[in-house]
Amino acid sequence: MRIASVTVDLLKVPLVQPYMAAGNRISEYWHVLARVTTDDGVEGFGYVVLLNAALVKPLADATRELSQLLKGMHVFEPEASWAKLVRAANWVGPGGFVNCAIAPLDIAMWDLKAKAVDVAREGVAIAKIAISHDHEFPLRIGLVSEAANRAPSQGKPIMGDH
Question: Is the pTM of this model over 0.90?
Fold first, then answer.
């Protein structure tokens, strides 16, 4: 199973109930979403969440550019995929921005691997793990998936590979 396509979208999710964090009013979440699809049609999903719009579009662009390096990679080699992405971003330097750009792709690769193998033997897909720990997350992954699936039909994605 090899990676056939990758899409990266930027999704703005308004909060029903804004809150304060570190002296800032948080009224929306920004998600950089990655969907990695194999030649067999199996899909892996990963994302990062940002609390404000600062640099979110350049982050999505960096993720999108790096995503092209995954095409042709084997689904059972997420470590090799991660290493390839890190090498490509080496001249940018290590740090938060590069790690945030790689994270949705890395998470999607691990989710894809979990889905591609016998789940009973290998474990559970990352999405299921996140849902079981929803008390630790401000927004359940199911809601993100639902919003991401609904957004394109409503014409609401901020930017993407559509």
Answer: no
